[in-house]
Amino acid sequence: MADQNGDLSITVDGRPVPAKPGEFVIAAADRAGIYIPHFCWHPRMSSVGMCRQCLVEVDGPRGPSLVVSCMTTVADGQVVHTESPTVKKAQEGVLEFLLANHPLDCPVCDKGGECPLQDQAFSHGPGESRFVEEKRHYAKPIPVSSLVLLDRERCILCDRCTRFAEEVAGDPLIQFTHRGSELQVLTFPDEPFSSYFSGNTVQICPVGALTATPYRFKARPWDLDESESTCTTCAVGCRMAVQSSRNQLVRYQGVDADGVNWGWLCDKGRFGFEAVNSPDRISAPLVRQGDELIETTWSAALTAAAGAIKEALADRGSDSVAVLGGARGTNEDAYAWAKLAKAVIGTDHVDAQLADGLDPSVLFGLPRATIDETCASKTIVLFGPDLKEELPVLYLRIRDAAERRQTRLVEISPTATGLTRHTYASLRYRPGEQGALISALLAEGPVPGLDDATVAPVRAQLRSGGSITVVVGRASLADRSEPLNVAVGALARLDGVRFLPVARRGNVHGALDMGMAPGLLPGRRSLTDAGDALRERWASVPTEAGLDATGILRAAADGAVACLVLLGSDPLADFPDRDLARRALVGAGTVVAVDTHHNASNAHADVILAAAAYGEKAGTTTNVEGRVSRVSQKVTARGLARADWIIAAELAVRLGADLGLESLDAIRDEIVAVAPSHSGITAAALDAQPDGVVASGPAALAFVAPEAPADPPKVDAYALRLVVSRVLYDAGVALSKAPDLAPLAPGTRLHLNGIDHDRLGITPGATVRVSSARTNIMLAAERDDSVPRGSAWIAFNQPDAAIAELIDLSSAVTDVRVETL
Amino acid sequence: MTDAPLIVTGRFGQSDAHTLAGYQSTGGYEVLQRALTTMTPEQVSAEVKTSELLGRGGAGFPTGTKWGFCPPGVFPRYLVINGDESEPGTYKDRMLMELDPHQLIEGTMLTAYAVGVAQAFIYVRGEMALAQERLATALNEAYEAGFIGRNVCGTDFSTDITLTWGAGAYIVGEETALIESLEGNRGMPRLKPPYFPAAKGLYMQPTVVNNVETIANLPWIVANGGAAFKAIGAPTSTGMRMFAVSGHVNRPGVYEVPNGTTTFRDLFEKSEYCGGILGGRAVKAFIPGGASAPWFYPEHLDLPLDKPTVDKAGSMLGSGAIVVMDETTDVVKATWRVVRFFARESCGKCTPCREGTNWLEKILKRIIDGHGRPGDLDLLMDLSDNISPGIAWPPRQTTICPLGPSAVSPIASAISHFRDEFEHYIVHGTPGVPEASRG
Fold first, then answer.
1. CA distance A363 to A470
2. B344 and chain A in contact, CB less than 8 A
3. Using the beta-carbon criterion (under 8 Å), do A183 and B400 form an inter-chain contact?
4. Per-residue pLDDT, A306
């Protein structure tokens, strides 16, 4: 009988099994530990009943009948047989059919050893095949994209990859073609399977039909050693298994964390191990001798770095030392560096964001929503970057919620995004005008630039009651964040609203939570609110809020920074205003870089401290929703590289202090003690909840809405307002140092609305001159109606052009003129 | 000739019957005008229900009952005329579409009126070029004359008919695959539930799917009344019915015969029908209703062409395609030809059909090529059992749709009756019949 929760009970092989109304027999059995063999069924996708492997018998009024358990809904009192002679014969029969044309090239197949077909042939198969005919032949393998190869001989046509592409990723670029015995999966002619999520198809393929270029023939599954970890490529924090063979990272596999990634990964995260394995790694500390950086010992390098800091402190005081970066490491790294900078050196000029993030009060001073809560909201206001480009798996989750009609998306953005076609309403603004737009939208009366027919349904949806989550982040890097704060102020007044602040960098949420921002202390506290536990352990606490990244770089450019520490940051590539970054690196006294790879910025360093990369160090990380989960060490660090927190502790010693942090456990204990947001997130709690624990902070750091919307700067009739945003594949180290990913960066083009494009008389594909107040660059122009009239969009940080040269952060917005040549 | 009136093939001898003028010269579209002006949709439905007209597509489901499955009050509804006649040996619908397209259009409009559909679709098999052309011309004529479209015959009834054709897939004859194809998707059967398109069909709206011949009966039924239709034929198989006979008879062709009372022997031997077996030879076996039907043998010749009787004898009348094999037939080859058809037409969606039918075909071909193995017959039967557990009739299936089990019927029939012929091939590598058939 159905119980009070509405749960049902079915009988499987004589065992009572609890079941949820509406679920399929196979899912109920699976949860109860009764394995029904299957290939096409996947718990995160719709059932298709195609492979027929999961046939079971269900008792009915006319006796037991054979049905597929992946399509048969549970009914209270249902009696299911998974091992009757009829079922056994049917299952063995299907397996023999599946193997009939399947090549037995298991010894040279990547899947061999972890192959569901192999395993189920063993557990549920007939033991031998009676097929003596010639098997089907196809060219093997064929590339369906630059990352994924398809072997059609091995394919058992289960529809998992094609279903994933269409249902989950929304990139229906692989499909069944032909029919019958010649049925096969293919791409459309001249259209590769260029999905950001293509690697998932390789993981869910139940045979070795799909293989990934970065892993092909790299290891045998039984030689793999794995640890569960959390991806830190972006801030979604997807759970994944980090796998190594012979002390080298060879593969990442998605792990199904219910609250986060449901088993999916984006390709940038999945194949990011290539960058860790890059020959371009910094494997030993380096010090400058003249024009060259020379490998040296840790002792010499640390002494040099500490000497520079000491000299700065002695000559010009603690205000002359600044730390830029810290979002790339673990929470433990960030805590150690925050303590070093703020308690030992005594500077508050510390920022883990590079003028591309959110005000800490937006991150921590507003009621927050988790990813699950966001997806369950009646309304999601998308007021931030293109999630498909910046936080791809969060895009999958929100897309899924919209596709299932669980939620309605209201998008307010400067250009169309990957989610636009799933929205209920999508409004455009010109950068700088978002504060005014949203304030007007949430007030009564007309909204400038929008007609009533557009505004009315949006207002109705926002006022319809029920939960509202605002996904807030920076949609463009070419303008400052003040108008965003005005808009957030207006949105924060909505009834029951919560926020999911989407800063993008790997562990930026954790770094800020650990105090790596001006005016912040660990646990989301302000400088005046240190708490006894912290005061006990910190020798001193800065009294005045320091400079943010822009301020630090300006000070450095003005010669006011005697020692600039680049903690895994590359301002020349990653800071929106390149001219300022360049002047800062020249103007800073001594530059100390703590980094994993050589890059343009640390080429200016006087000392480089070799840092351990992802997979080479353990700790915890914090994702967009504040979820803290473990990051595992799987391989030993490259060369002499060390974890950031060890470097911080060593530097402290050379500065005559002691951080008192001698192990990761000690750091975790101290974080739990001093940071209220981490209260209770002990090592034991993380062991008990591998999917992570959501940190929640005190509302001490209140968000204060700016007074009135500043007048948006007017754009003159000849100019276009520039929108610059990140795309998934850029010139960052995760991409540029990964040989299989690097070629995927799309390059820089000027995207214009078709009307502007034609008005300017641009020949399709022609190169144009794009001039800002600062400089001009030549770019190919492209018609793109996802950009509204009056704006222009350019991708940030691509390998072929330095778009950051155009941006001047002393202006509120960037306007450009476009001239044909 | 019998006394029974020809209901759907009456104009086959008339050379201009496919034109509007020719159709109207024999009273065409008068029924439609009368029905629209003097009858309610319910009255039209009632006549069809009274007639006990069984669907002519294969399953033989009562047409009036099927219409009744549309959930009341759910609109829009659609009507789909299934003209994707693709079963080997079936060509009756083709004749109806080529020789008398207006009769089908009039029947479609009557059905549309009775069921209350917003739009009707006629889906013609891709290879039937002449049928497509004739229907297209006829639709244009009928639109011009006001028999289709807005305000049909001056009444406030409006319905469009859209002509669509397939791209050469047998499986699209299966109604849910046909609906998928109509929607622009790959022609693959839909997963069930929902079990009936009447509840959720085209664009997930209530949809009536009827066969061409079924609908072609409508003008006569509405003109003469359901009771008059029911009076013809047997009580369990009413009216007249078309059969397409091919194989070893003197005059293969399409014949409209009183349903349920005519016997197979009548059909094969009577002079007005097939006129006897080729060369006066004896019947060895015959397929009574399409390639997927279990075979019949000489002892079944005197069974009437009556659905319940044939069902009871272990086969079906199906789509009315009868294939006669005389005593010279190489049964192994005949089996292979039928199985090969199903193997090639498998859509590939589910494993047992995709892999199983092709494997069966390969084994049969190997036997014919002289490479048979001693265990092959048991293997054929066991693989058949893995596609259609128990090899029973009506078949059970491990597959999504009945196409896979369709390939099992001929194998089970042939091996059970002519095992020695298979064994002869396996032992000697040559046919076991003295004279190989024409194919």
1. 12
2. yes
3. no
4. 98
Looking at B71-164, list the stretches that DSSP marks H as alpha helix, in order from N- to C-terminal side.
92-99, 101-115, 129-144
Confidence of residue B195 (pLDDT cuts 50, 70, 90): low
Measured between alpha carbons, how far is residue A301 from residues A294, A567, A640, A810 in Å?
A: 10, 15, 12, 36
Which residues in B lie closer than 8 A to residue A50 (C-beta atoms)?
Answer: 349-351, 400
Q: Is A548 helix (H, G, I), strand (E, B) or coil?
A: coil
Classified as helix, coil or strand, B26 is coil
Burial class (CB in 10 A: 0-12, 13-18, 19+), B22: middle
Amino acid (1-letter code) at residue A471:
V
Alpha-carbon radius of gyration of chain A: 28
Question: Would you call B389 and A66 a contact, using CB atoms and an 8 Å cutoff?
Answer: yes
End-to-end CA distance of chain B: 32
Which of A65, A71, A94 faces B351 most closely, judged by CB atoms? A94
Q: What whole-number distance in Å separates Cα of residue A621 and Cα of residue A355?
A: 21
Interchain CB contacts (distance < 8 Å): A and B: 95
DSSP string, A470-498: EEE--S-SSS-SHHHHHHHHHHTTSTTEE
pLDDT of residue B1: 41
For chain A, list residues with pLDDT below 50. 1
A375 min Cα distance to partner chain B (Å) = 27
Contact flag A179-B363 (C-beta cutoff 8 Å): no
Q: Are B400 and A49 in contact (CB < 8 Å)?
A: yes
Phi then psi for B196, rounded to 5 degrees?
-120, 130
Q: List pLDDT tens digits, range A690-718.
A: 999 999 876 667 888 887 656 767 888 88
> Is residue B421 pLDDT above 90, yes or no?
yes
Q: How far is CA A739 from CA A147, A277, A582, A742, A802, in A?
A: 11, 10, 28, 6, 21
B401–chain A nearest CA distance, Å: 11
- Summary mean pLDDT of chain A: 95
pTM beyond 0.90, yes or no:
yes
pLDDT at residue A3 in the model: 66
For residue A47, list chain B residues with Cβ-Cβ distance below 8 A.
191
Q: Are A98 and A154 in contact (CB under 8 A)?
A: no
pLDDT of residue B196: 83
Q: Does B20 touch chain A (CB under 8 A)?
A: no
Mean pLDDT of B360-384: 97
The pLDDT of residue A710 is 60
Q: Say what the pLDDT of residue B188 is.
A: 85
Helix (H, G, I), strand (E, B) or coil at A231: coil
B169–A contact, CB cutoff 8 A:
yes
Q: Is A157 an interface residue toward B (CB < 8 Å)?
A: yes
Q: Which pair of tokens denotes residue A600?
A: 């343009």
DSSP per-residue letters across A381-415: EEESS-HHHHSHHHHHHHHHHHHTTS-EEEEEESS
A50–chain B nearest CA distance, Å: 5
Q: Report the 10 Å Cβ neighbour count for A215.
A: 22
Does B384 touch chain A if contact means CB atoms closer than 8 Å? Answer: no
Which residues in A lie closer than 8 A to residue B344 (C-beta atoms)? 180
The per-residue pLDDT for range A796-813, each reduced to its tens digit, is 999 998 899 999 999 989
- Residue A236 CA to residue A352 CA, distance in Å, equals 17
